[in-house]
Amino acid sequence: MRKGTCLGGKRMAAQRQCKVLNVAEKNDAARELSKVMSRGRFNRREGFSKFNKIYEFDFNILGKECKMVMTSVSGHLLSLDFAPAYKNWSRTLEKEIRGCQHLVLWTDGDREGENIAEEIVHVCTQVKKTVQIHRARFSEITPQSIMRACASLGRLNQNVSDAVKVRQEVDLRIGCAFTRFQTMRLKQVFSSVLSDQLISYGPCQFPTLGFVVERYKQVQAFIPESFHKIKVVHETTEGRVEFNWKRVRVFNHTVCLILYQMCLEASRKMRINAKETMRIAEKLYTQGFISYPRTETNMFPESFDLTAIVRDQTPHPNWGGFASQLLARGVTPRQGNKTDNAHPPIHPTKYTNSLQGNEQRIYEYVVRHFLACCSQNAEGHETSVEIEVAGEGFSAQGLAITARNYLDVFPYDKWSDKTMPVYQENSTFQPSSIEMVEGETSPPSLLQEADLIALMEKHGIGTDATHAEHIETIKNRNYVGVQSDGHFVPGELGMGLVEGYDAMGYELAKPRLRAELENDLKLLDEALSKYFGPPQQVTQQVRTASSTLSGATVQTGLRASCVPREMTACTTCHLTLLHDLQFPSIRVTQNNASSSTTTGSSSGGRGRRQRGGVSPQPRDEGKRWWVVVVVRGEDREDGGGGMVVGMVMSGEVEEEGEECLLVTHQLHSPPLNQIQSRQFHKCSKRGDGGCNFFLWMDQDPHPAPLSSSLPPPPSPSPSSSVHTSGYGSMNTSCSGSSRSGPGFLSAPKRGSGRGRRGRGGGRGTAATSGGGAGMGVVCNCGQDAVMRTVQKEGPNKGRQFCTCSKPREDQCGFFEWADDVPTSNITPGLFFYLVYKKNMVW
Amino acid sequence: QQSVCDWLEARKGVKVQQNWVEACLEWIEQEEGGGVPMASLREMVYGQLLHADLRDVVVQPCIPASVPQQQTTTITGHFIVQVDSLVDVGAAAYAQLQKIKGQSLDDVDTKKNFEPKPTRLLLLSLTDGVTDFQAMEYHPIPQLTTDLTPGAKLVLRGTIGCRLGTLLLSGDQVELLGGGVESLAGINRQSRVLARALNDESLAGEGGTTESGPPPTTGSSSAGPPARSTGNEQLQEDN
To answer: Given phi > 0 = left and psi -120 to 50 = alpha, else beta, which region is A639?
Structure first.
């Protein structure tokens, strides 16, 4: 509407012809779809993004002739960080939708595609509310499939899209929280080694790391064993074939020796040695069956009547047929190069079918050889041959024959094409050698990238699009290294992390957790529609359950350190504090205040709750901390047994004095934008120096047990509701953004491996300076970032952003938009997920 | 009593110690009271035999004792033997042990591998009660698996080739009678057999180093199938 004239023109055009905006997931798809629908007759023009072209053509859809505009996006529109160039397609969409009455979504038919489609709708409807939305479902870009899609345009599947949102949100939360925890914790303990390194955690990158570590450990633990095997070799003038034993190998010498002996004996029985062969041949010669055998001549004299000799052999039951065919095709002898000028090449001189034993075998050989050399050449390709020696199977790979020709009659011959002779089925031969070879088992090889991707695929870690990214992340974090031969080895840090969590009993690096989540999401797709029906019902469920939950948590104190384990679980809400981690200042110590509230004051009704933001004492001078460990799995008596799926740690250390420390015990009850928290004071001294002071903040100073804070009122921006206490003298320009306060908890975006949000200590605005500013945004070099405003002409002019405070040359490249407000709202899907996994509570 | 002995020899091909049968019958009488018909009495004694260690029971070997010394020979007939342990020598013991422990290599074959899959080749440690033999699975014996109870009894029949003291068995020559020997259950547990093959008993996992027998059915008196203990007590008394 801003450019009235231009738009007016377009409208006029639109009235004349129906105009449809089509959006595919990638430019490739847009191009191919356009090609098919327009039969190659489309116009291409540029959009705002050079990666996403616009294709225009006319097409009959929705029952009328329409002007089609086909463009594309590049994955998720609302993902965390996109280089500005990519953002341009959303501007393309905004522009193109204006002239269109219909929007057809051609994103891929998977869950991700459904979600992207929803994002496209979101962008487009903001510009044009009246646009009609259609979802095209196709499995392949072929004319049939596309025509079918056009004829059956449907609606978006909200459930599927929600499931994706759930995953994005869960990923982000887990990733951010855990990265933050890990980084801060480990930096403190190993400050000299780790210095500025970010120690990220991601639900995909960690299992990926796990694969590398797992393989490495298996290689380390491997015990070699010796084995024996039998190798059969057949050497002929035309090549050497090595046959592999069907049993492959045997891990027992005696057993192998027995089988070997049997093979040797069997092969001895078969042999007709050269001397014997010649003796028999001489005999056949004297009987007039074959020509003189002691000759090396291989050239037939020109006068030689080959056809007559071939014809003689036609009555034979075994090769007579071949002889007849040969006559029909014509005799084409292969010309040799040797002659003694006394004898012709060996050939049959008389037909017989009454010989026995070895005489028969030799006569047969001579005949077959003769017929073969009069025949055409064979042609072939790769094959495998299996043989049996004394019942032991062996096999070899080589060439097979496509046109057998002479081979039909000459089973003895080997494929002359170097690699492998040809073996006739059921033929026998004398192996040149049979050996028993000793060997040793070797460990599995370390993983290469292809193996790693295959493993990720197998276990459902990440998607095609993100596999490489996850691998890149664990490389960048120095969790793994790549050897020059492409094999992955875990680094000390990666190894340490995986082993550390394993030792604690959390199999974070095992693919199971991730796979379960993916599986749950599938169930979610189905279950949502099956059990809950329309979204309104879901929302209702959300409300009911959320009030139930918050009711429960109000009465829940920290059942602190009652459990002599490394984990202390909150009985009701499943929050678990890890206190053996020696997390800075957080040693959850038993205290009368906490333990007595555990179940004692459990009669909480609505009246006992208080609105969020209790004790809004300004504590902007502190560094903040949270501790939230989410455990899912069985709720066992001993507080263990659950699976940590996410952990958020934060808290506040008061700088003035060392009297007490404020820790927030949070329960993220759904909907997610409402986070319940409870705060307590405790001594901030670390280790043994600390006293046992512990007090719920909302019990302070009087023991009147208004035990917890209520979820703050839902606010339009989910992010801003997190604050339950007045921590922030926040800079206003940041307060609405996702990163104000514990912003990393609430940004419902996709977790990026980059983890730039997880860095450093407190989060705050650039405006706050010094002394660990409450909510400092920290740049990559660990310093408080500064807020600036875009001065440059362009679409972003006037927008505020945070960047590194150092002079331009020294900047670390950190960049964040200040107004990068997440757009997602409450996610019914996510809630269902939580309910579905009853034991899992955020 | 004598008739039970004869029946075992005639029908099952085992010549057992008189006093073992005696003890067995005594025990059955205690358990069941008198008046058990002969047919079921025989079967009960036979049932006890399957759970006894043949070494404690058999008086006369059924397989020629010379077999272990001979290069090649064949034996023909009907032989009851006891499988003390068995192991698949067609696969690496390490890999098998990993599999038992649930730590198998998680792998995806990215390179097309044409190597044929190794076939199982069981190597059995047998005894006929007097002589110990080895036997190998020359042709597949689907009746047998690596989780066979140590001490289970087999019938071997037909003409069986022997080489280097090892019987070469095929499926059609083997009948699995079942049973087991309690004292072997621990020592010859599959994981320990494999660990022994790797020369490191500690790899067997839990209970690998101690003499942990099977669940506590010490079977001394009335409860359980006390066949073996009956035999043992008898033996001890004899000794």
So the answer is: left
Whether residue B69 is predicted with pLDDT greater than 60 in this model: the reply is yes
Output the pLDDT for position A272: 57
- Look at residue B40 and give its three-state secondary structure: helix
- How many helical (H) and strand (E) elements, i.e. helices and strands, does chain A have? 21, 23
A/B interface, count of CB pairs below 8 Å: 84
Query: How many other C-beta atoms lie within 10 A of the C-beta of residue A393?
Result: 15
User: Which amino acid does the sequence have at B196?
Assistant: R
Determine which one of A86, A285, A292, A836 is catalytic. Answer: A292
Judge whether A44 and A69 are in contact, CB under 8 Å. no
Instruction: For residue A648, list its beta bridge partners.
Output: A628
d(CA B208, CA A673): 53
Contact A584/A653 with Cβ under 8 angstroms?
A: yes
Task: Give me the pLDDT at residue A609, please.
Answer: 29
| Count: domains in chain B | 1
Calculate the CA B79 to chain-centre distance. 13
CATH number at B148 reads 2.40.50.770
Q: Measure the CA–CA gap between A363 and A316, rounded to whole angstroms.
A: 12
Phi, psi (rounded to 5 degrees) for B168 = -100, 110
In whole angstroms, give the CA distance from residue A687 to residue A222: 41
Give catalytic status of residue A292 as yes or no.
yes
Helical ranges in A376-445 per DSSP H: none
* Among the ranges given (A202-206, A240-244, A611-615, B134-138), the one the predictor scored with the smallest mean pLDDT: A611-615
Strand partners, A440: A226
Tokens standing for B163? 């080489």
* Chain B touched by A438 (CB under 8 Å): no
pLDDT, residue A769, reads 31
Q: What is the reported pTM?
A: 0.46
The token pair at A407 is 């081979």
Check whether A527 has a pLDDT greater than 60.
no
Distance of CA A173 to the CA centre of its chain: 19
β-pairing, B174-178 vs B166-169, is unpaired
Any residues with CB less than 8 A from the CB of A273 and at least 6 apart, and which? none
Rounded distance between C-alpha atoms, residue A348 and residue A367, angstroms: 6
Cα separation, A669 vs A841, whole angstroms: 7
Q: How far apart are alpha carbons A592 and A594 in whole angstroms?
A: 5
Give the whole-angstrom CA distance, residue A761 versus residue A744. Answer: 12
Give the structural domain span for B125.
2-237
How do beta strands A239-245 and A800-803 pair? unpaired
Provide the 10 A C-beta neighbour count for residue B40.
Answer: 12
DSSP B171-194: GGGEEEEE---HHHHHHT-HHHHH
User: Comparing B233 with A359, which gets the higher pLDDT?
Assistant: A359
Report residue A100 as tokens: 């269109």
Q: Rounded mean pLDDT of chain A?
A: 62
What ipTM score was computed for the predicted complex, to two decimals? Answer: 0.78
Which is nearest to A160 in space by CA: A124, A126, A116, A103? A116
Q: Helix, strand, or coil here: A585?
A: coil
Question: A555 in helix, strand or coil?
Answer: coil
Chain A residues whose beta carbon lies within 8 Å of the beta carbon of residue B118: 247-249
Q: Which residues contact A756 (CB under 8 A, 6 or more apart)?
A: A81, A780, A814, A816
Contact criterion met (CB < 8 Å) for B115 and A248: yes
pLDDT at residue A411 above 60? yes
Residue of higher predicted confidence among A391 and B97: B97
Name every residue in B having a CB less than 8 A away from some CB of A.
89-95, 103, 105-108, 110, 114-119, 121, 123, 134, 136, 138-139, 163-164, 166, 168, 197-198, 200, 203
Which pLDDT value is given to residue A395?
Answer: 80
Q: DSSP readout, A739-781?
A: TTTTGGGT--S---TT-GGG-SS-B--TTS-SSS-TB--B-TT
Closest CA to A472 of A496, A492, A456: A456
